[in-house]
Amino acid sequence: MSALVDADILAALASGAIVIDPFDRACLGTNSYDVHLAPTLRVYKSLGKEVVWREACGMTWLKEVPLDVRVPRETVDVAIPEDGLTLEPGELYLASTVERTESLFHLPMLNGRSSLGRLGLSIHVTAGTGDVGFRGHWTMELFVVKRLRVYPNIPIGQLLWFTTENEPLVPYGSKPSAKYSDAGAFPQASKLHEELSGG
Predict the structure, then answer these.
(1) Total-model pTM
(2) What DSSP line would sit under 109-137, residue for residue?
(3) Span 65-75, pLDDT tens digits
(4) H or E stretch covering 15
(5) How far, in Å, CA of 28 to CA of 159, rounded?
(6) Residue 199: pLDDT over 60
(7) Contact (Cβ atoms closer than 8 angstroms) between residue 98 and residue 165
(8) Which CATH number fits domain 6-44+76-196: 3.10.180.10, 3.40.50.720, 2.70.40.10, 2.40.30.170?
(9) Which residues are catalytic?
């Protein structure tokens, strides 16, 4: 497996093997393409606090009701104003790319930009690798080490593409289980509960 460089990416764009919409030649790096932060974030809606009892010490206290992999959680949209929005540590923000991409034959991977990493921003928890055949806007899982102000349309990440030894038998977008492909321009919340319930 080898990474595509700028000339390879341009050739793949020309042939339609890779789609980036909108595309701006100025965002093409040596071996990656800068993608931008869409102006709407999503956060999981709080269900309030639950009483927790610790038998060992005989104490009770209140804790945030946890997310549950088997239960869908409602989300709330948060617009990023032109003058910015401060991200808070301890919160997970679902974000999406301005760009809609498609990769027919190459394995796409999304990484954070080092300039933002140096400010304590991570753009994904474990979901940096895409699938051959994915098409859509990338959902990112933003979290910060320190409070950080971000703005709509800033360069948020870098897309890379890798060659594969063979074409997949069934590209991601053709799978019945492709629950995130062509899902729209807004960040997508977890749909793991659909797998676990068989739905």
Answers:
(1) 0.84
(2) EEEE-HHHHTTTEES-SS--B--TT-EEE
(3) 788 888 888 89
(4) helix 6-15
(5) 10
(6) no
(7) no
(8) 2.70.40.10
(9) 141
